[in-house]
């Protein structure tokens, strides 16, 4: 029940941000990411993910401002609700409260010296795409009074932006000669996870959750299992390599 109440709070915040332009609403969550990041050490695992996510959010804001989304208001609503889930996890961790299972590995291993920056980035993306994105789609549909199919174009555009940036993220966080990378355990570890597959699973999960919206007990059970499964993958991605 507490989780359902939390969802309602997020929708209320989105209604307030609907008074802003779509671009300014996205800029608002980007500003919050910069604010929380300011107090972290650059090598902190959450800080590593935050930098990656901030880059994505700023790019989506530019695309919304440039008219690249079919429905800028729907795109901004999805982006803001999506970001709110990550920011809520950050606030919970800072206050010593329990975070969703998908985020716990990142917060627990954030200062582990044996975990490399790319692992932190991918673990954060895994948590955010695998758990937060399906719930954000459902919240967006509830806020806008529509069905998932009505925001599929915006969902696809956000996903395309993430995929376009993923290769750059991998290159920046895993430098080194190609011949050495082939034998590096990190190459094998991150090669087992796919953003494209995670995005496809997130869309399927969003559709299932939307279909279960009149069955809160089943929806809650599905969400719990999804959360736990994504958290398990996150622990694997954060396997210390030294």
Throw out a few tags for this protein:
242 residues; globular; 11 helices
Describe this structure in words.
76% of the residues lie in helices and 0% in strands. Helix 1 (2-17) packs across helix 6, helix 2 packs antiparallel against helix 3 (45-65) and helix 4 crosses helix 6 (117-144). It is mostly helical.
Write the layout of secondary structure elements.
Elements: H1 2-17, H2 22-37, H3 45-65, H4 72-94, H5 104-109, H6 117-144, H7 152-173, H8 178-183, H9 185-191, H10 195-211, H11 216-237
Q: What is the number of strand segments?
A: 0
The rounded distance between the terminal residues' Cα atoms is 42 Å
| Helix amount | over 70%
What structural class should be given to the helix and strand makeup?
mainly alpha
Q: What is the average per-residue confidence, as pLDDT, rounded to a whole number?
A: 87
Number of helices: 11
User: Which stretches are low in confidence, meaning pLDDT under 50 for 5 or more residues running?
Assistant: 1-18
Major beta sheet, specifics?
none
Radius of gyration: 17 Å
Q: What proportion strand? A: under 5%
Shape: globular
The H/E string reads: HHHHHHHHHHH
Structure at a glance:
The chain contains eleven helices and no strands. The protein is an all-alpha fold and 242 residues long.
């Amino acid at each position: 029940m507490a989780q359902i109440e939390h969802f309602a709070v997020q929708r209320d915040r989105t209604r307030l941000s609907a008074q802003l332009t779509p671009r300014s609403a996205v800029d608002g969550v980007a500003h919050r990411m910069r604010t929380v990041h300011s107090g972290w050490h650059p090598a902190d695992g959450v800080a590593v993910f935050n930098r990656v996510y901030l880059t994505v959010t700023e790019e989506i804001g530019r695309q919304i401002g440039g008219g690249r989304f079919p429905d800028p208001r729907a795109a901004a609503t999805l982006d803001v609700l999506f970001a709110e889930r990550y920011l809520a996890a950050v606030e919970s961790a800072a206050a010593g409260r329990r975070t969703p299972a998908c985020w716990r590995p990142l917060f627990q291993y954030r200062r582990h010296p044996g975990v490399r920056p790319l692992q932190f980035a991918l673990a954060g993306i895994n948590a955010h795409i695998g758990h937060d994105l399906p719930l954000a789609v459902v919240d967006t549909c509830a806020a806008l009074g529509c069905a998932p199919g009505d925001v599929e174009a915006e969902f696809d555009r956000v996903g395309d932006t993430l995929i376009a940036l993923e290769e750059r993220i991998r290159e920046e966080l895993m430098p080194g000669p190609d011949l050495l990378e082939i034998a590096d355990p990190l190459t094998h570890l991150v090669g087992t996870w796919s953003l494209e597959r995670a995005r496809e699973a997130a869309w399927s999960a969003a559709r299932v959750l939307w279909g279960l919206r009149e069955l809160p007990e089943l929806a809650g059970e599905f969400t719990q299992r999804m959360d736990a499964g994504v958290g398990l993958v996150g622990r694997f991605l954060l396997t210390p390599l030294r």
